[in-house]
Structures are given as structure tokens and as C-alpha cells.
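re the bet — no i am not wrong, look at it urself. input seq straight from the record:
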Amino acid sequence: MDKSKANIIIDTLMFLCMMAIVGIGMLIKFILLPGKEAAVVYGRKVDLLLFGLDRHAWGTIHLDDICVVPQIIRKQGHKKDHCYPCCHC
């Protein structure tokens, strides 16, 4: 695979991961409210779910996605002559 094609794939993966991080973060912050805030908004205790997942499950997905990003950066760093200091290569 040539270098430009590899860069496009890596950039696309980074874009998708970053959009997932932002989207899930906004979902947790504004849609899947914590218990006290949900009680204020809805007037009673409700279980807020999206696709069968509560805010804690979405938080786990959010964390996993955040852990993937440095791995993608590390892959991109090994293709260059230098590595980023945050990657501990």
C-alpha cells in the first residue's frame, strides 16, 4: 500500500473516532442525564436508555474509543522518521 493511501485510511479512522468521541460525549452530557437532573427534567425517576444502553455503558464505549485514538496516532508515528512524545514509542 502506498503512503498516500495509508494516510487517507489513517485520517479517516481518526476522523471517525473523534466524531464518535464528540457525539457520545454530547449524548452523555445532554441526552442521558444523571439521576438527579433527569428527575428535575421529567418530574420522576426514569431510566434513560438509547439502543438499550444507559449512560454508564455509553461512558464505557466513550472511554474505549478514547483509548483507540493514541493507538492510531502511534501507527501513524511509526510510518514517519520521528514519533510523538505522547505515544511513548
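see?? The chain has a mean pLDDT of 83. told u. also The chain has three helices and no strands. so pay up
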